[in-house]
Design goal:
alpha/beta; GMP Synthetase, Chain A, domain 3; Rossmann fold; 11 helices; 11 strands
Length: 352
């Protein structure tokens, strides 16, 4: 004779009706429910998120609470959260360093604020509690040190370069290593070799996300990195106007050609001066997610020039809040990309 289901069994059965809104599977099947306990009429459990930047955790909390309260005898529910960032299956056996996700930030042309987006996106991800690295792979025009207000790294250790640390980020840039008064005139293979050394010769430690600020355009450096490195995906940065969007489309197409998933499109400097909506129209036309727009704000430029990024220095400003929202969308999209690559269940047309 089968044993009657316990109260815990009934709670898990109800939780199996709660669907994770990005992955489109229930919380129990996804093994996201942990540490379930029942004391008298009170239930408590933890939902383990796939990223601390999950934008929909409050929706899951509300739906899980409602589901558990349907169990007879349960009168109160406490939902806790922790997070374990999912790693990209493309990395398996291909990375010499324990980095779960590599995010390429790219633009079809210079001058659209790609490095500004890279810096503020990386800080916003770190602010959620994730471990984040920032690689300035724009070897011939390394601007990241200026934007972060740092000019050197710690001393090397155990024959490894030690990245600088600021705002919760680990940072590497050729700007730390080169003479600032001399131009860096390098050909494609030399740039590619330097980028590879930024992986192999730097003591990164374990990272949930590495944001890689690529050179502008679609040249040798971008193509070789995309082909030789297991990128989780690419973020495409554009301005709203047509000429910038046209160049961004070519950059997006390059990643598609080498089978790198597109995380989405960001419209930078959106507003009256440059217009708005071009990035969203581009994303819709190409069938990729639109991650959000960042309003044109002089404080973003001022913060970049002074080494005080707006997400760190003015976190409640509209531009900073836009970057924080975009970071949540990037993290959620990465969770879906990794789940899809590992499980091969979710059709691409369901990702939005």
């Amino acid at each position: 004779m089968a044993e009657a289901p316990t109260l815990e069994d009934k709670i898990m059965a109800e939780l199996s009706t709660v669907i994770e809104p990005e992955l489109h599977r229930d919380l129990v099947t996804l093994e996201m429910i942990h540490s379930l306990s029942v004391t008298d009429s009170a239930a408590e459990f933890t939902i383990r998120l796939t990223t601390p930047a999950c934008p929909l955790k409050h929706q899951m909390e509300a739906e899980a609470t409602e589901a558990v309260l349907r169990v007879p005898g349960i009168e109160s529910v406490k939902v806790n959260f922790d997070a374990q960032v999912t790693g990209n299956p493309r990395n398996m056996g291909r990375m010499s360093v324990p980095i779960k996700n590599l995010i390429a930030v790219s633009s079809g042309k210079g001058g659209v604020g790609k490095s500004t987006v890279s810096v503020n996106l990386a800080i916003a991800l770190a602010q959620t509690g994730a471990t984040v690295g920032l690689m300035d792979a724009d070897i011939t025009g390394p601007n990241i040190p200026t934007m972060l207000g740092i000019d050197q790294m710690p001393p090397a250790s155990n024959n490894k370069l030690v990245p600088a640390e600021i705002h919760g980020l680990k940072v590497i840039s050729m700007g730390f290593l080169a003479d600032p008064g001399k131009p860096l005139v390098w050909r494609g293979p030399m740039i590619h070799g330097a980028i590879r050394q930024f992986f192999s010769d730097v003591a990164w430690g374990e990272l949930d996300y590495m944001v890689i600020d690529l050179p502008p355009g679609t040249g040798d450096a971008q193509l070789s990195l995309a082909q030789s490195t297991p990128l989780t995906g690419a973020v495409i940065v554009t301005q709203p106007q047509d000429v910038a969007v046209g160049d961004a489309v070519r950059g997006l197409a390059m990643f598609e050609t080498v089978n790198v998933p597109i995380i989405g499109v960001i419209e930078n400097m959106s507003g009256e001066f440059f217009g708005e909506g071009g990035g969203q129209k581009m994303a819709e036309a190409r069938g990729v997610p639109f991650l959000g727009s960042v309003p044109l704000d002089p404080q973003v430029r001022i913060g970049g020039d002074s080494g005080e990024p707006i997400v760190a220095n003015q976190p409640d400003s509209p531009a900073a809040e836009a970057f924080q929202h975009i970071a949540q969308q990037v993290a959620a999209r990465i969770s879906v990309i990794n789940f899809e690559a590992d499980d091969n269940v979710i059709p691409l047309n369901l990702i939005g």
